[in-house]
Write a structure and sequence with these properties.
The complex is a heterodimer of chains A (717) and B (161).
Chain A lengths: L15 E7 L5 E7 L8 E4 L21 E2 L5 E7 L2 H9 L2 E6 L18 E9 L2 H6 L3 E9 L11 E6 L4 H4 L11 E5 L4 H12 L6 E5 L12 H16 L3 E4 L2 H7 L5 E10 L5 E11 L7 H12 L8 E8 L14 H18 L4 H8 L5 E2 L3 E2 L6 H12 L1 H15 L10 E11 L13 E7 L5 E4 L8 H12 L6 E4 L14 H20 L7 E7 L27 E11 L6 E11 L6 H20 L12 H5 L12 E5 L13 H18 L5 E2 L3 H12 L6
Parallel strand pairs in A: 1-12, 8-26, 10-11, 14-15, 20-21, 24-25
Antiparallel strand pairs in A: 1-5, 2-4, 2-6, 3-5, 7-15, 8-13, 9-10, 9-12, 13-14, 16-17, 18-23, 19-20, 19-22, 23-24
Helix pairs in contact in A: 4-5, 7-8, 8-16, 12-13, 14-16
Chain B lengths: L1 E6 L2 E6 L6 H8 L18 E4 L2 E4 L12 E3 L1 H4 L3 H12 L9 H14 L5 H7 L10 H20 L4
Parallel strand pairs in B: 1-5
Antiparallel strand pairs in B: 1-2, 3-4, 3-5
Helix pairs in contact in B: 3-4, 3-6
The chains are: A alpha+beta (717), B alpha+beta (161).
Chain lengths: 717, 161
């Protein structure tokens, strides 16, 4: 098999280029598509030309819009032709005529009931007796936390190249394409090749065996290439199927920026009931998740947000109401951490606010109230005891937190009397905790049975067959196989060509936590057969979803496809962020980030450290820098022009320490910074400014406005 | 129009519309795929080439500007000792790159070290600010450049600076 390459580097003879014609309205009905007269070598494809079912796998999302238009930029047609420049000219003269309807965007107020037809998923969970807890509360602390959209900004934009690997006589003679010998090949950068395969087969109306997906290199995808490449692949595949020529469709940077899924926006309201001693007696959580059009992955996203919103602290009486809504912005998707990060942001901010109200050190409050004995909130059991105290001790020591927090707190108290007079720098320090699961909850039609295959060949070489060959774990797997079987490392191949089993989506550190274990088990099985069976010896290992009845009260999804196994051994982290704010311009500067990580067994410390550090930088971008938003269903052009990811010159020192907690198996760690950094940063800025911030991104201008409000003597919101 | 220019040390002649971008000419006409396409507005920095001695964005250079110019792509630069120093320095620092921005990082590193023999940490970080890639790890980047400086000094003068 050829070495993986970038999609953009694939050029084939006779290749056609494809462009997407898109909806100009956020909601409406498609009346017609006006297109200039095209030469014979150019083709326009619409939904009517789709031979199979017009939706993506496991989704209501149409591959090309039919009558109904649901967001600005929704694909309605494909334009194909041999000359890229001419194609662009033709596309500029295409007009989509639509009858506009009234769109719905994010509800202005999370307390307002959402219309039933907009609900993609809903949860109402009651554990214990929250009503009594709130009725008898000595005080109630309420916070409303909003986290913003984050753009993935992967290096290579989404694209796909599709071709028929054999133009059979039957196809040339006009018989139905897809008959004997005619196999469609799709090359795309995807985290889930089998999702691409099934989606393409579905729209073409053929069996999955007629479609071969060759994964291209995925760069830093941050879960942005989980399902979106399936949509673009369907477009390229449809073009190749209909024209019988290779088709290349690569989105421009602007198209990708404006229309691809992003980290979804959430609004989370949390109330804590406290008794007279300041102890938490009840929690009420209300989550609203804006998933954009079609509500892709609604159950998955909502449950992750809800899990994070419950935090990592002991709680007996819980009321949780969660809603994932469909709106008329482009479909929103996961971003590293799925929705856990948004949930943890809200809960960790709220916890710091409770500590502040009780005049306690936020680290100490966490120390005293953290979950223990292997039980998450809502009595969800996990395998190992949560290492809360060890995590807190680690970062507190690394950062000299206690001394800094006490002195910054003293200065904050002093400044209350004369905010405007002092000229000294404003400093603050914040702490947050979180965990990361290692799998999806809802596996879809394949029921989550993901596999790898190991083959010891006659010549003594070894093939590790997985659809996730581009996971970056190949070196680790080769080391494991070499150690168990004594095969020279140079004779071990990691394959993802034809015949490889579905290894599931590459997300939430599954390559490290799930597939590594399967590789190890398969090699051990080969080892047992080695001198008994003739070569080649082939062993396939499969992981099956597992339910845990104790978790069902939080995940009351009726169908039997919920997989809890990825969460019973979470990775854990604690983070401290220290900031300094210029007292004149109110420009925040991060002085340092300290992070303690429980990653279980660390397979490669260099890789683990790099992975966490990269995530820290992107999490800082979400917390304090990157701002993207939709106005009337579209991202304003200036958002694109002004968009910045963290500048290397502005990134603070990042200190990471791995702690030892049940180090017999690896745990997921790559998404942990997204769960911890934002809340720690907001808490640090809040202490420095003596002002409760409740949303991210929290940018310099937000701090500036808060400073002005304080100068005017206005109280924090 | 017909345009002649020097590409990786060789005289070449192409026929092209005046407004075609250099990045497309390199990739489509010459099959030089090391120069990656990106935003086409000079924003992302992935399409770096050495144009008349300085690092430029190939997406912003129209064909008519190529006349009598000299262009060096990563394929040309990879034949130099400077390239080997950078690759060895980056590998020594275990600098992991997504691959898509590698060309830009390498060419910018070469340009930086041509300009400043021993750049400071801030000068290094500033030199890479124009590459908008999420894989950039500042600590590893600084270490990679510092190692490259040592390698280059040793190669040129037989000693460390």
């Amino acid at each position: 098999m050829e070495a993986p390459r970038f999609v953009t580097d694939i050029y084939l003879p006779q290749m056609l280029y494809a462009l997407t014609i898109r909806s100009p309205v956020a909601k409406g009905r498609l009346k017609s598509i006006e297109c200039p007269k095209l030469p014979g070598s150019y083709t326009l494809i619409t939904a009517e030309d789709i031979p199979g079912k017009n939706t993506l796998e496991d989704s209501l999302l149409p591959v090309l819009a039919g009558d109904d238009l649901s967001y600005i930029g929704e694909p309605v047609a494909l334009l194909l032709g041999p000359d890229k420049n001419a194609l662009e000219d033709y596309s500029r003269h295409c007009r989509v005529i639509a009858e506009e309807d009234t769109p719905v965007f994010f509800p202005a107020d999370a307390d307002t009931p959402v219309r039933d037809d907009l609900i993609a998923a809903r949860r109402n969970i009651c554990i214990g007796d929250p009503e009594t807890a709130f009725a008898q509360a000595s005080s109630v602390i309420r916070g409303s936390y909003r986290s913003g959209i984050q753009e993935h900004w992967y290096a290579e934009t989404t694209g796909a190249v599709a071709w028929l690997n054999e133009t059979s006589n039957s196809a040339a003679a006009g018989e139905a394409a897809g008959t004997a010998g005619n196999r469609l090949v799709v090359q795309t950068a995807t985290q889930w090749p089998f999702h691409v395969r099934r989606s393409v087969a579905k729209i073409l109306g053929v069996t999955a065996s007629k479609v071969l997906v060759e994964p291209a290199i995925t760069d830093i995808h941050l879960d942005g290439k989980l399902w979106y490449p399936s949509l673009v692949s369907c477009h390229a595949a449809l073009g190749a199927w209909i024209t019988q020529k290779p088709v290349r469709l690569i989105l421009t940077r602007k198209e990708d920026f404006f229309f691809s899924p992003k980290r979804c926006e959430t609004e989370i309201i949390i109330e804590h009931a406290l008794n007279e001693k300041g102890e938490v007696t009840g929690i009420a959580v209300n989550t609203t998740v804006n998933l954009g059009a079609y509500g892709v992955n609604a159950n998955e996203m909502l449950d992750h947000v809800n899990m994070g919103s419950l935090g990592v602290y002991r709680a007996k009486n819980i009321r949780l109401s969660g809603t994932a809504i469909r709106t008329n912005i482009p479909p929103q998707g996961p971003y590293a951490g799925f929705g856990l990060a948004q949930g943890f942001f809200a809960h960790e901010c709220q916890v710091s606010r409770i500590a502040d109200t009780l005049n306690q050190d936020p680290a100490q409050w966490r120390y005293e109230n953290g979950v223990k004995d292997g039980i998450l909130p809502a009595d969800m059991p996990v395998k190992d005891a949560a290492p809360m105290k060890l995590l807190i001790d680690t970062v507190v020591k690394m950062s000299d937190y206690r001394r800094k927090w006490a002195s910054y707190e003293l200065l904050r108290q002093k400044r209350r009397a004369h905010w405007a007079e002092k000229g000294e720098s404003l400093r603050g320090i914040g702490i947050a905790l979180g965990y990361q699961g290692g799998g999806l909850l809802y596996p879809g039609v394949d029921k989550g049975c993901y596999s790898i295959e190991v083959v010891l060949e006659k010549d003594g070489s070894l093939d590790i067959k997985t659809s996730m060959a581009n996971s970056g774990c190949g070196g680790v797997w080769a080391d494991i196989a070499s150690k168990i079987l004594g095969v020279d490392r140079g004779m071990i191949r990691i394959n993802s060509g034809a015949g490889t089993p579905d290894s599931g989506p590459l997300t939430m550190s599954r390559a490290v936590t799930v597939l590594t274990k399967l590789v190890e088990q398969a090699c051990q099985a080969v080892s047992k057969k080695r001198f008994r069976d003739p070569l080649p010896i082939c062993v396939r290992k499969t992981i099956r979803p597992q339910r845990n009845p104790a978790w069902d009260q939080v995940f009351p999804y009726p169908e039997n496809v919920v997989d809890h196994s990825g969460f019973v051994r979470p990775g854990w982290a604690s983070v401290i962020v220290e900031v300094e704010i210029d007292p004149v311009e109110y420009l925040p500067r991060i002085r340092g980030v300290w992070m303690g990580v429980d990653g279980g067994k660390i397979l490669s410390e260099d890789r683990a450290r790099n992975s966490v550090r990269a995530a820290v930088i992107q999490a800082l971008g979400w917390a304090c820098g990157e701002r993207v938003g939709y106005v009337n269903g579209a991202i304003p052009g200036e958002n694109y022009e002004d968009f910045e990811i963290p500048d290397p010159a502005q990134i603070p020192p990042v200190n990471i320490e791995f702690i030892e907690n049940a180090p017999d198996e690896p745990k997921g760690i790559g998404d942990l910074p997204f769960s911890c950094i934002p809340a720690a940063y907001v808490q640090a800025v809040s202490q420095a400014m003596d002002y409760h911030f409740q949303s991210i991104p929290l940018k310099a201008q937000d701090v500036w406005y808060a400073g002005i409000r304080k100068l005017k003597g206005e109280e924090p919101a | 129009m017909t345009i002649s220019f020097i590409l990786n040390g060789e005289d070449v002649i192409i026929r092209s519309d005046a407004n075609v971008r250099l990045v497309d000419i390199l990739r489509v006409n010459f099959g030089l795929l090391g120069t990656k396409g990106g935003c086409l507005t000079g924003k992302c920095g992935f399409c770096a080439v050495i144009f008349n001695g300085g690092v430029s964005h190939a997406c912003l250079i129209p064909a008519f500007r190529l006349k009598n110019s000299e262009v060096i792509t990563i394929e040309g630069f990879s034949q130099t000792d400077e390239y080997q120093d950078i690759m060895t320095g980056f590998a020594g620092a275990k600098l992991e790159s997504c691959g898509y921005c590698s060309t830009s990082k390498i060419l910018n590193a070469g340009a930086l070290l041509d300009r400043i023999k021993r750049p400071s940490r801030q000068e290094i970080l500033n030199a890479f600010s124009g590459i908008k890639c999420r894989c950039t790890d500042p600590e590893k980047l600084v270490e990679g450049i510092e190692r490259t400086v040592e390698l280059r000094q040793r190669r040129l003068y037989g000693r460390s600076a």
